[in-house]
Hints:
Elements: H1 28-34, H2 48-58, E1 70-75, H3 78-87, H4 92-96, E2 99-106, H5 109-123, H6 132-144, H7 148-169, E3 173-177, H8 182-188, E4 195-204, H9 219-222
Antiparallel strand pairs: 1-2, 2-4, 3-4
Helix pairs in contact: 1-7, 2-7
The structure holds flavin mononucleotide.
Amino acid sequence: xxxxxxxKYDQPxxxxxxxVNGKPLKPITRTLLERRATSxxxxxxxxxxxxxxxxxxxxxxxxxxxxxxWRFIVVQDAENRKRLQKAAxxxxxxxxxxxxxxxxxxxxxxxxxxxxxxxxxxxxxxxxEEKIPEQEKTVNDFLGNFPAATWLNRHxxxxxxxxxxxxESYGLDTAxxxxxxxxxxxxxxxxxxxxxxxxxxxxxxxATPDKPYPGRLPLEETVxxxxxGNPWHSEQGTQER
Length: 241
Ligand SMILES: Cc1cc2nc3c(=O)[nH]c(=O)nc-3n(C[C@H](O)[C@H](O)[C@H](O)COP(=O)(O)O)c2cc1C
C-alpha cells in the first residue's frame, strides 16, 4: 500500500514477514516456549524496520475502552543507554543491548485522548458517534475513582508483553526489567511528573547461551475450574464436581 494513502490511525501497512535472519517467523507456540529473559546482549544492531514493527505490533494490544494509555521511549544511543543502566541498578544488559525501551504511562493523559479515540472508532464503524458523550461519562465515572497506577500498569504491560512476543517471533532476544529507580529514569529522560515508569525492555541478540528454563508452576497450582479451590486438570473427566 502507498504509505501516503495510509491513514495514521490504520494498522501498519507493511511488516517484516520473516525473522531478521531471513528464516520464517517463529510460530506462536515456539515463540512462547523458546523465549527466555536474556542476561547478556551482543552489540549487534537490530534493523530499524524490525524495531518499528515490534513497536507497531505492541500498539495493537487491547486496552480498556481502547484508551491506549501506554507510552514508550526507544533508547539506542550508547550514552543514553549508559545513563539508563545507571538508573536501572547498573544492570549490564541495559548498556549492552542495542535497543532498550522505557515503557511508561502518564496519569490522567487518557482524559485528553478519549474524545479523539472515540471519534476515530465511530468513524471506522466501531462505535456510535451519537453515543460518545454518554460513553465519555461512563469512562469518567469508572476511571475517575480507579487507582491510576494499577490501571496504567495493567495496560502498559499488555503492549509491552506483545512487543516481547513480536521480538521473539522475529528471532530476537529480550529482557524485561523492573529493576530500576523510577524517579531517576524520569529525571534522566525528562518524563513528566505524572508519569508512571512501568518497565524496561532490552531487545537484541543474546551474547551468551540462554540461561536454563527455570520451570513454571503447573496448571494444577495456578488454574482453577469454575470456582476457587477446584484445580484445573488437563484431562477431561478427572475434575472434581
Ligand atoms: C516485569 C518483569 C520484570 C523483570 N525484571 C527483571 C530485572 O530487573 N532484572 C532481571 O535480571 N530480570 C528481570 N526479569 C526477568 C525474570 O527474572 C525472568 O523472566 C524469570 O526469571 C523467568 O525466566 P524466563 O523469562 O527466562 O522464563 C523480569 C521479568 C519480568 C516479566
